[in-house]
TrEMBL record:
Keywords: Hydrolase. One of its GO terms (cellular component) is cytoplasm. Gene3D superfamilies: Ribonuclease Z/Hydroxyacylglutathione hydrolase-like. InterPro entries: Metallo-B-lactamas, NAPE-PLD, RibonucZ/Hydroxyglut_hydro. This is Hydrolase. GO terms for molecular function: N-acylphosphatidylethanolamine-specific phospholipase D activity; zinc ion binding. PANTHER family: N-ACYL-PHOSPHATIDYLETHANOLAMINE-HYDROLYZING PHOSPHOLIPASE D. Residues 1-24 are annotated as: Disordered. It comes from the Bacteria. Residues 7-24 have a biased composition (Polar residues).
Length: 338
């Protein structure tokens, strides 16, 4: 569950990274994981709300979704599976981001996905060419999903240190590439670039920031995508947009935000700003709609984002979970309104 320790090859790459200080990895922008102040709710009040819930924290009915039914995507098609899991087909490759289908927590309480109208499981997935992992938190690196998908995945591309987790779970080393920020791997003429994000990592009590975290640039001949992973707002979005943009699609974190961790997760208005700086034509908001990971109403992220998007030229893409879509069709239906 927790993962493994880097082998000698991985450890050498880690220690040689300019982002590793000898003990931990560091963000490019000075970052506090906790931004609590004297005016913040007490720890007990916060935990009480998180554990016992606030009104509307969870949906009152199964979330709309569509079963895969053995679907095989054509180039240009995509599917959102809730949270940060997106399957896309481009240049003959099927690529999936942060495949999480089970619990988003190692604890026996909390972390269960919301009930879906049509449950989606790893068994329904088509063969996968590339899995992109942004970091090793439980809501982005799902041990059971990785094990389930192992035989049907050709290659995993991960940030430094995460290779050890996959090896520990039985994935052949030859199927794993681990990268530092701004390193890349090309498969079938599609270039996968690991870019920085403003976040942190760790699966246990003593391994915080021992592995790297990041975002992903998928640069294919007919499709250019940015996947944010997790992270707070920073000037790096503008740099990425200037260097690698414009993007056809930005898959952006939009949920599980809180003033208590304001530097490691974006608020919806910041998600819009970051998408603009990335020079993205379309924005697919993720990191919401599947798990209860913060103290806001479960619909607050998409409602706030939709309001902010009215003043932006970035086009929102909001498909139903499990339903294939393309960027050429109208996919900004407000399915959550009911």
């Amino acid at each position: 569950m927790f993962g493994g320790k880097p082998d000698n090859t991985s450890q050498t790459k880690i220690t040689q990274s300019t982002h590793f200080n000898g003990e931990t990895f560091e963000n490019l922008t000075p970052t506090k994981i906790s931004t609590r102040t004297e005016d913040s709710p007490s720890t007990w009040d916060f935990l009480e709300g998180f554990i016992f819930g606030v009104e509307g924290k969870n949906p009152s009915a199964p979330v709309p979704s569509q079963s895969l039914n053995g679907v095989l995507l054509q180039d240009g098609e995509m599917i959102w599976f809730g949270h940060s899991t997106v399957l896309m087909a481009t240049n003959g490759l099927s690529v999936i981001t942060d495949p999480v289908f089970y619990r988003a927590s190692p604890l026996p309480i909390g972390g269960a996905p919301f009930e879906l109208q049509a449950p989606i499981t790893t068994e329904q997935l088509p063969p996968i060419d590339v899995v992109l992992i942004s970091h090793d938190h439980y809501d982005h690196l799902d041990m059971q999903a990785v094990k389930d998908m192992a035989k049907q995945v050709k290659h995993f591309i991960v940030p430094l240190g995460i290779k050890a987790h996959l090896q520990h779970w039985g994935i052949n080393s030859n199927k794993i590439t681990e990268l530092d920020w701004y390193e890349s791997k090309t498969i079938n003429n599609v270039n996968f670039i690991l870019a920085p994000s403003r976040h942190f990592s760790g699966r246990g009590l003593t391994d915080r920031m021992k592995t790297l975290w990041g975002s992903w640039i998928v640069n294919a001949p007919a499709l250019k995508v940015y996947f944010s992973g997790d992270g707070g707002y920073s000037s790096e979005f503008k740099k990425i947009g200037s260097t690698y943009g414009p993007f056809d699609l930005a898959i952006m974190e939009n949920g599980a935000y809180d003033q208590n961790w304001a530097q490691i997760h974006m608020f919806p208005e910041q998600t819009i700003k970051a998408s603009e700086e990335l020079k993205a034509s379309n924005l697919l908001p993720v990191h919401w709609g599947k798990y209860d990971l913060a103290n806001h109403h479960w619909l607050a992220p998409i409602q706030r984002l939709s309001k902010a998007a009215k003043h932006s030229e970035v086009r929102l893409v909001t498909p139903i979970i499990g339903k294939p879509f393309t960027l050429n069709e109208k996919t900004n239906q407000t399915w959550w309104a009911d």
